[in-house]
Amino acid sequence: MLSARSVFQEILDDDESFRLFCSIAASGESQGGWENARIAALVPAGERAMTGKITRHGADEDKHGRIFRALLRKRGLDPVDVPPETDYTMLLERRGIGLAHEKLRGDQPLTERDIVAYLAHSRVTEQRAAEQMRLLRRYFADDPDIGRAVRMISDDEDNHLAYCHEELLRLAGAGYGRMIQALLRESARAEIRVYRRVSLAVTDHMGRLLGWPRAKGALLAAGIHGVYGYEAAGGWRRMVSLRMPERRNALGGPATTAAEFA
Cα(207)–Cα(204) distance, rounded to whole angstroms? Predict the structure, then answer.
């Protein structure tokens, strides 16, 4: 029977598909770590109180990249180059979502509007990340090889999402409400298109590595298009709502380490 769990299990059981999966994940997380580190370095004077939380966000993302690389080492595998059509972060940047890397590479302080844009983009992408990790946690939390990594990353993604909700609500109260809603809608609508594109590309690569029959690939592609249809019809709205999280000040403490995965 074809299910999300069976597909994930097939990918995890094969060295080549596992290597691609972890390489894509490690690359995206490391990119997020760099972006947050640069944002923390360029925080405007009026938002200096956020510097520690942004730094923690980046440290968590960088840690996730190290965890995925450690999972590869554990199986004696080296990372592979990430196919550009599967590079979620790069494709979002090309659509103008989030802060441009050219700006982050510079030395000019960001503006408060830049911080709003960063948080709105993060609110959307962290929703996706949290949902994906909850799915993996449901199936593999007790897996002897990846269970510990899945649980740690899932907890972190939930913290990141809580942080975005709390900070955006604070900024909405400071007068940025309309801007936040406009950026959230723009980011969500772009994200669901990029997610569909990346999902189809990853499925295509995995299918070739695992020798999936054409019918199986077509069925999985149809499922991806179905998810996009739901999201385009209104499912995207879950990415733009704001509510005060149960986890308050979720990034207010020090980052946990990945020492056990080294």
Answer: 5
In terms of Cα–Cα distance, which of 153, 31, 139, 137 is closest to 86?
A: 31
- How far is it, in rounded angstroms, from Cα 35 to Cα 71? 23
- 96-124: pLDDT as tens digits: 898 999 999 999 999 999 999 999 999 99
Tell me the C-alpha distance between 64 and 84, whole Å. 20
Name the residue type at position 96.
G
Q: Are 49 and 251 in contact (CB under 8 A)?
A: no
Does pTM surpass 0.90? yes
Q: How many CA atoms lie within 13 A of 178 on its CB side?
A: 1
Residue 105 dihedral angles phi and psi, to the nearest 5°: -80, -15
Give per-residue pLDDT as tens, 206-249: 999 999 999 999 999 999 999 999 999 999 999 999 999 999 99
Reading the block at residue 48, the tokens are 């200096």
DSSP state of 89: H
CA distance 11 to 188: 28
Question: What is d(CA 113, CA 110) in angstroms, rounded to the nearest whole number?
Answer: 8
Supply 8's token pair: 């994930």
Report the C-alpha gap between 237 and 189 in whole angstroms: 9
DSSP 110-162: PPHHHHHHHHHHHHHHHHHHHHHHHHHHHHHTT-TTTHHHHHHHHHHHHHHHH
Written as six digits, the tokens of 168 are: 């955006």
Query: Which DSSP state fits 79?
Result: -
